[in-house]
Amino acid sequence: MSGEDVFELRSAKPSWLIRLGSWVVSKRPSVFPQTAGAVRGFLEGRKLPQDAPMPAGFERRFTVERWQAVGLECITLHPKAGKGAKHIIYFHGGGFVLPMFKEHWPLVAALVDFTGASVTVPLYPVAPEATQQAQDAVADAAYARVAGEWAPGDIVLSGDSAGGHMALALALRLVRAGSPLPGKLVLFSPWLDVTMADDAMREVEPHDIMLKVDALRELGKAWASDTDPASPECSPLFTPDSELAQLPPMQIFVGRHDIFVIDSRSFTRRLCAAGGEVKLYEYAGAPHVFMALTPTREAKDCLGLVRDFLKE
């Protein structure tokens, strides 16, 4: 695909459920700081966040496997019928600084149900208590373990928000190392530039019920630490074309009420121009990581597209 063929508006009008879900989320206390000045207090001296536990009912719905990557827990959900033909490694979002949310678990379960794949969730350590390098080490070790049981071509790297960044960054590290690549990438509302450089995000910001540009820029600096936040290692949007061209086929899903829609479009254009295979699906009125609102028409459509993509 080339040009505008790589962009598709899947939903031109938000469903009533996505509007209701957005309203409910907007009335809750924000999980992220809303201003740049609030970031320092948000991170300093806090009690170390804990991952939301896997729902107890999952033990009945799936075959659950628990294992470790560099000493950190990974949880794999297999369909009850047996291990999936495909294996999705899913990195949860949270701005690199927050752990697994309880809202992530239904999305992970839906991925198993829709695709029939096994899905692994690495419970990586969060910044600033852990470094970017420590997070990458968990991702690398998880991929190496899964690649020991599944052919790399049957592995799908996926994630939402900062987790989408982690999935893409892992694939790019494999490209740079000349290592076997996963078969596909599926990115949900990915955070692609932690410097938040594109001012076009300001036009979307009033509609985004979760994310604010200035606060995310400060979170990105805190996570990058001594590394340049604008480097390709920290901001995949700036990856050289020669590396982008080697990435496996990719799908990106994002709502139009999500400030990350701007960089998702820019990255899609860059990847397409570099010769990569990519498709960006957008959803009108949908918030950040809308696919976690699993009962909605938009989430079901997204997961159906992922199912079809894995069959190709």
Short structural summary:
This protein is 36% helix and 17% strand.
Characterization of this structure:
The protein is 36% helix and 17% strand. It has 312 residues and is α/β, with parallel strands linked by helices. Strands 1-9-8-7-6-4-5-3-2 form a nine-stranded mixed sheet, sandwiched between helices. The model has no long low-confidence stretch (mean pLDDT 96).
Structural key phrases:
312 residues; alpha/beta; 9-stranded mixed sheet; 9 strands; 17% strand; globular
Largest sheet: 9 strands, mixed
Q: Please, how many helices?
A: 11
What structural class is derived from the secondary structure elements? alpha/beta
Uncertain residue segments: none
- Helicity, as a percent range: 25-40%
Number of strands: 9
Shape: globular
* Spatial strand arrangement across the major sheet: 1-9-8-7-6-4-5-3-2
- Measured on Cα atoms, how large is the radius of gyration? 18 Å
Strand content: 15-25%
Chain-averaged pLDDT: 96
Ends apart, CA distance between termini? 15 Å
Secondary-structure element order, as H and E? EHHHEEEHEHEHEHHHEHEH
Write the layout of secondary structure elements.
Elements: E1 7-11, H1 16-27, H2 39-43, H3 58-61, E2 62-69, E3 72-79, E4 87-91, H4 104-115, E5 118-122, H5 132-147, E6 155-160, H6 162-177, E7 184-188, H7 201-204, H8 213-224, H9 241-244, E8 250-255, H10 261-273, E9 278-283, H11 297-311
Parallel strand pairs: 1-9, 4-5, 4-6, 6-7, 7-8, 8-9
Antiparallel strand pairs: 2-3, 3-5
Helix pairs in contact: 4-11
